[in-house]
Design a protein that fits this description.
This protein is 40% helix and 18% strand. By secondary structure, the chain is α/β, with parallel strands linked by helices. 35% of the residues are buried.
Length: 280
């Protein structure tokens, strides 16, 4: 995998199950001249488990990323290659690395993604809520006002919402989501790919029933708004207008709208989609 030109590999690593490391990721981590790691001790343990020895590290986390950029660019100017990893999953997905990748690209360094495990996508694939369109909010802000604004802006799109939350703040965040978004289905995806992996389904109106004793890494998926009772034609056209913004094909739009309402088949909605397109 070595590159003749200075290269930054952005390498996805397991969320918890070591078996999820790809052969390509393993080879790149073994061949890179240096590893840029969010937590060098944690990445060191990963490399030990992969039987990769003798690697040099540069720590790169939220508090030092800006200061590290010049040092890393100098390393690339000297002809070196580096692999960027986060503590788990795909780098930059609510983890440090964006500013470095941006600076490297502007500096002419070759950027190569090495895809693999990603908590938001993993959660969407198994939670049973509509997987797209979705918006990923990363870790939720601590202040209620900032959280409220995020939910207001992205909730209005009708998309599925995915975010990370700390266990100590989970019920508080779900309460804010209920206040802003109304009653929607949600799934708490806990300890993804690990021994105690768990998917806890509920509705935002029942946020107080969520256990305060949940442990581990938590990804939350909140589904799009669902209309209770038979939807009116006016409501159907409103949802169609929302879904048409995604640019999807009429059949996909029809299926997504039908999943969000009662009393309408995908075929019936499709007729309304074609009617809307004809009249627009």
């Amino acid at each position: 995998m070595p590159s003749k030109s200075p290269t930054l590999w952005v390498v996805a690593t397991p969320l918890g199950n070591l078996g999820d490391i790809s052969d390509r990721a393993r080879k790149i981590l073994a061949s890179a001249d240096v590893i840029l790691a969010e937590d060098t001790r944690r990445t060191g343990k990963l490399l030990t488990n992969l039987d990769i020895k003798g690697k040099g590290f540069i720590s790169l986390h939220d508090h030092n990323e800006e200061k590290r950029i010049a040092k890393v660019l100098e390393f690339f100017d000297e002809g070196g290659n580096a692999a960027l990893v986060s503590d788990a999953g795909t780098p930059l997905m609510s983890d440090p690395g964006y500013r470095l990748v941006k600076a490297c690209r502007e500096h002419g360094v070759k950027i190569v993604p090495v895809p693999g495990p990603c908590a938001p996508v993993t959660a969407l694939s198994a939670c049973g809520l509509p997987p797209y369109p979705f918006v990923f909010l990363g870790f939720m802000p601590r202040k209620d006002g900032q959280m409220t604004k995020l939910f207001e802006v992205h909730g209005a799109t009708g998309a599925t919402i995915v975010f990370f939350e700390r266990k100590s703040r989970l019920r508080e965040t779900l309460a804010v989501a209920y206040r802003v978004l109304g009653d929607r289905d949600f799934v708490i995806c806990r300890e993804l790919t690990k021994d105690y992996e768990e998917f806890i389904s509920g509705s935002l109106s029942g946020h107080e029933d969520v256990s305060a004793e949940l442990k581990g890494e938590i990804t939350v998926v909140v589904g799009p708004p669902v209309i209770s009772g038979p939807a009116s034609e006016e409501e159907i056209f409103r949802l169609i207008d929302q879904e048409m913004l995604s640019g999807e094909k009429p059949k996909v739009i029809a299926r997504r709208v039908a999943d969000r309402v009662q009393g309408w088949t995908a075929k019936a909605v499709y007729e309304k989609v074609t009617e809307r397109k004809t009249n627009s």
